[in-house]
UniProtKB/TrEMBL annotation, chain A:
Source organism, top-level taxon: Eukaryota
Annotated source species: Cloeon dipterum
GO molecular function: protein heterodimerization activity
Protein name, per record: Multifunctional methyltransferase subunit TRM112-like protein
Pfam families: Trm112p
From TrEMBL, chain B:
Protein name: Methyltransferase HEMK2
Organism per entry: Cloeon dipterum
One function term, GO molecular function aspect: protein-glutamine N-methyltransferase activity
PANTHER family: METHYLTRANSFERASE N6AMT1
Transmembrane segments: none
Primary role: Methyltransferase that can methylate proteins and, to a lower extent, arsenic. Catalytic subunit of a heterodimer with TRMT112, which monomethylates 'Lys-12' of histone H4 (H4K12me1), a modification present at the promoters of numerous genes encoding cell cycle regulators. Catalytic subunit of a heterodimer with TRMT112, which catalyzes N5-methylation of Glu residue of proteins with a Gly-Gln-Xaa-Xaa-Xaa-Arg motif. Methylates ETF1 on 'Gln-185'; ETF1 needs to be complexed to ERF3 in its GTP-bound form to be efficiently methylated.
Amino acid sequence: MKLLTHNMLSSRCIKGVSVGYPLKISAKNVRLVNCDFDTDFTVRIIQKLDWNALWEAAESVGHADDIPKNLSDIDDYDKNDEFLRKVHHVVLEVEVIEGELECPETGRKFPIEDGVPNMLLNEDEV
Amino acid sequence: METPFTNHLSFEHIYEPAEDSFLLMDAIEADDFWLRETVKPTICLEIGSGSGIVCSAVAKFLNVFCLATDINSLACRATRETAQRAGVIVECVNADLVKPVVTGKIDMLIFNPPYVPTENYEVASSNIAHTWAGGLNGRQVMDRLFPLLPELLSERGVFYLVLLEQNRPQEVERILQMQGLECQIVMKRRAGIEKLCVLRASKAQII
């Protein structure tokens, strides 16, 4: 599970949960992979991101130093190659292979196995 | 659009790509210009990705980030393998439809649903039944998705859905139009006894 994927997931589907976002990450095994960098694609991805959720996710897997806590700290980020490459690295190249996602409201845990989060719920949870 | 290899997979518990899969890929390919110029998709989601053939092809064709959900964990694994072999990024989540996906981010949503009309008890009765058994009018599974679409799609988002004639495509169009989506049957094809089509429902303006 890449951190970009984590940015798109919530536990709002659980009965009684109002926001369910962001999910907490406990990672047992994190892997770094190589992905081709594309300036335009990275800029478009940043426009889609919930930055706070990304920063918290990066912190929980030991990559908080790679990106600023606030996106507003970076002027003209779309022209800042060094910054864009760091974001690219954090969102696409850091992968949680084994671990858990946790609902911030109920504490319900969702296992991540072989890079795939299991977000299936039991009938009594929906 | 290049067809990804799937000959590394066994199709005992997942859907083997067939005419409906290729029709969906062809319909997306035919919208090439409009997708690139108007929708400009960054994030794509395929529901029920199965072998992963469609999302892997789309990821390569449009240079989008692809998410994929499947209720069958074996299908999630298959999708990952197919994407890896095609050299593209597809991220899998083991989930029911779009339940864990946050709202407003998906530019392109793709679904080849279980569309075969069956008795309702047959729906979701096994891994392989998940891939085809659609309950009454073949609509039981896809009907659960429709109310979620306006929230799920981004402001220019587009949805591609495979339908069988028995699913009552015109009725599906009306349901989606009532949710503010612009609808059109963009491709039709006969495959053996199946009369298939692809419905496109869009928030973005159609040229």
